[in-house]
Amino acid sequence: MLLLAGCNSLPDSGPTEAQVKHAQHDPKKNNLGYGIVQVSPELIALLQSKAPPLFSSFDIATAGLSHASNDTVGPGDVLQISIYEVGSALFSPSSASMAASSASGTNTTPSSSTASSLPLVTVDGSGNIEIPFAGQIHVTGMTTNDVSLAITARLKQKSMAPQVVVRIVSDIANSVMVYGGVRHPSRITLTPNQERILDVIALAGGEDHTTQSDEDYTVRLIRNEQVAELPLKTIENDPQQNIVMQPGDRVQLVFQPRSYTVFGASGQVTQTQFSTPTLTMAEAISRVGGPIDSRADPNAVYLFRFENADVLRSLGMPIDENATTGPIIYKIDMMNPSNYFLADKFMMRDRDLIYVANASSNKFYKFFGLISTLVSPGITAAWIAK
């Protein structure tokens, strides 16, 4: 009894497997309401199915639709319209003097052609423009050539052989917003060249912190109310994720160094950065030296995480309907060889916490070592005296 009491009074680096299980069922200790789930092939499949979508999935979703040509007019665009006329011109300042001379009987020979540039025209929220003598014209979805033909058709009855040239001065409809950790956050105008996501990031000046690794940057893409995130390095390494930009896209570059923490009976208690686009649990554990043979319990390696609410509901965990995340503990038995395959499929996330439980016999060995330390000098002195 004295031996057991002495063992329990010794300090320790963390709970054993039995203590973790007991704390889960103790309402006083488990005030967050977490659950413990064994890592299994079914769990790996569930987590993979709930992973954020890849950028390539946006292209798959619109596979049957043609990509925008990036040369159409839309609300907010500013147009420069030039009109060329032959004979008596509607838009030339000389047309008024020619009309006056004609009324007075003076012969005036009209010039062969007259060019007139209208004041800049803005496409309104309904997609219309207002042109003198032509009226209101709906231009949303038209190319500049289509707009020229539409204005020309309206003026044919009022002008002699009119020709119209339309140019987009400020292109709002065919643009994307690039912001966050770039040098020049701005609106990037797309062209018929079909710029891709790395192109618009480069046009915005690239990463703001050039001394940092690309693994520390995350690209967040918002398209049609869908949101996807990928490490910048993943997009650079996988051409399928470097998708073509579409008008209205929003691209945010986020500087976010990812890290995980390790506690317990591991080779090193530390906070470690990912330094790679993706990281598995097996890689994370090996980076800190793995469980220590002398005091770890490889049967009980835990990963603490605030998991997405959808995953918790799929696992049958109680969670508030308004919550977006909730606490959970994933357990893996490293004494089972097949679980090493699972650890190589279990993906780590930013701020995950790995805990390697202490072996239940650890306190006994600590107590035995303490007794040996106290008794050994006396035995040595008695041996010398003898």
Automatic annotation (TrEMBL):
Tell me the GO molecular function terms.
Answer: polysaccharide transmembrane transporter activity
Domain Polysaccharide export protein N-terminal per the UniProt entry, residue ranges = 69-168
The source's superkingdom equals Bacteria
Please name the Gene3D superfamilies in this protein's record.
Outer membrane lipoprotein wza domain like, wza like domain
Per UniProt, what is one Pfam family of this protein?
A: Poly_export
Q: What segment(s) does the record annotate as region Disordered?
A: 99-118
| Keywords carried by this UniProt record | Signal
Spell out the InterPro entries in the cross-references: Poly_export (IPR049712), Poly_export_N (IPR003715)
* UniProt key word Hydrolase: no
Q: Which PANTHER family match?
A: POLYSACCHARIDE EXPORT PROTEIN GFCE-RELATED
Listed name of the protein: Polysaccharide biosynthesis/export protein
Organism whose genome encodes this protein: Komagataeibacter saccharivorans
**Upper taxonomic lineage:** Bacteria, Pseudomonadati, Pseudomonadota, Alphaproteobacteria, Acetobacterales
